[in-house]
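hey can u run this one w/ zinc ion bound, need the C-alpha cells asap thx
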Amino acid sequence: MKRAALVIALVSLAAPLSAQSPAWLEPYRPIAQRIITEAQSNDFTWRRLAELTDTFGNRISGSETLEQAIDWAAATMKADGFENVHKEAVMVPKWVRGAESLELVTPVKQRLVMLGLGNAVGTPAGGIEADVIVVKDFDEMTKRAAEIKGKIVLFNAEFVSYGVTNVYRTAGPSRAAAIGAVATLVRSIGPMGLRTPHTGATVYAADQPKIPAAAIPAEDANRLQRLQDRGVKIRVKLSMEAHFEPDSQSYNVVGEIRGRELPNEVVLMGGHIDSWDVGAGASDDGGGAIVTWDALRLMKKLGLQPRRTVRVVLFTNEENGDKGGEGYRDQHMAELKNHVALLESDGGIFNPEGFGYTGPAAGKATIAAIASLLKSIGADPVRDGGGGSDIGPSGTAASIPMIGHLAAANYFQIHHTPADTIERITPKQAGDNAAAIAVMMYVLADLPWKLGAEK
Ligand SMILES: [Zn+2]
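ok here u go:
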C-alpha cells in the first residue's frame, strides 16, 4: 500500500466514529452492512420487479391484471415466509379508456399522438371536431376567454415541476369548460421526452360541465403552438370512448415480520401495486411496491427480527381513487396509535437520494443518524417533508411520523407513459433502494425508544 492510500484508508476508518455518530447507532452498523452486501450480491429485487411487470403488465383499478398481481403478491409473500399474510378488501372505481384518437384536420389531415386523461369522460360516438386555441397558461386563457366558446383549448405549459405544472392536467379541463370549451388537450406533464404522452388523473369541478380531456406529447403541443403563432388555423378531431363502469372489488396486500418484544407496535412500509393502463407500471409504482416488499424479504433472509413488527402493505387504487390508502386507515383505525412510522416509496427507484421526513422534530436526528449508515449507496440525505398518497390518510388521521423514500432521478420522464418499463431501472438501483429501506425500517423497528419520543 502506498503512503497516500494508507492515509485515505485511515481517514475513512475514522470517519464513522465522528461526533455526529451516536453510540446507540454502532450496533446497527454491521447489520446495515450485511443488508447492503446481501442486496448487492445478486439481482433478486430487479428480477422480482421484472416478474411482476412481465407477467401482469399494467394494472389499472378494476382490471383482471391488477387482481392477478395482487393474488400473486399474497402467494409469493407466503412463500417468502412472511407472517400474517392476507388481503384486505376495498371497493375501487373502474375507469375504462376504450379506443381513442386525435386527428389533425386543418391545416393537414394527420394522426397525432395522444393519451386520454384518467377519469375523463369520452366524446360522443362520432368524436368532437373543433378549432384549437393554444394557451401557455391560465392567464392567457383568461385574456382570450371571448374566443374559447365551442373550441378545444390546448394548455401548452412547459414543465417546471410536477407540483407546479400538474394543475393544467387536474384543473385545466374544468377551467376551460367554465368558459365554454368543448374539450381540452394538455401538454404532457413531464420534461421533454421522445414524443411520449403522459396520462394521469384529471379532476372535474362539480359545478362545471365535464368535457373530454387528453394529453399530447410536448412535441405535438409545440407544433400546434408554432402553427398558431404563424397565424395558421388549427382544427382537430378528438375521439374517446372513456367511461366508468361499476365499482370493483380489490385488495391491499399485507405481510409482516412480527416484533420480538413489542409485536403490537408497527413500522409500516409500502407502495402501490396498481398502475395506469399504459406501459408496465414499473416505476409507478411496481418499483415502490417491490423494494418495500423486498426490504422485508432481506430482513427475513438475514434472520433479522426487530423489537417491533415490520409490516409491508401493497396498496391498491392509488392512481385514480386512493381507496387503498383510505381503506387501510379505516380498517386499522383502532391500531393506528400503535404505528411508529410509515414509509412510502412512490417516486421511482433510480439512484437512492435518501429520505423525506414529516414528524416530531426530535425524530429527525434519529432518521438522519440511521440514514448515515447508507452513505455508501447515496441514501444518507434527509430532507424535511415526507409522505405519500397511500400512507397519507393514516398518517394524518393519527399523527404518525411519515417518511418518503427518495430516488426520483428519471421519474417524471416516464411517469404515466408507455415508456414506464423495467428497462429504465438497473438491478443495482433496485437492490440499493431495497437495502436503504430495509436498513431504515429495521432500525426504526428495533430502536429502544419510539421514533419522535427521543430524550
Ligand atoms: Zn404512483
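The chain has a mean pLDDT of 95. anyway lmk if its weird
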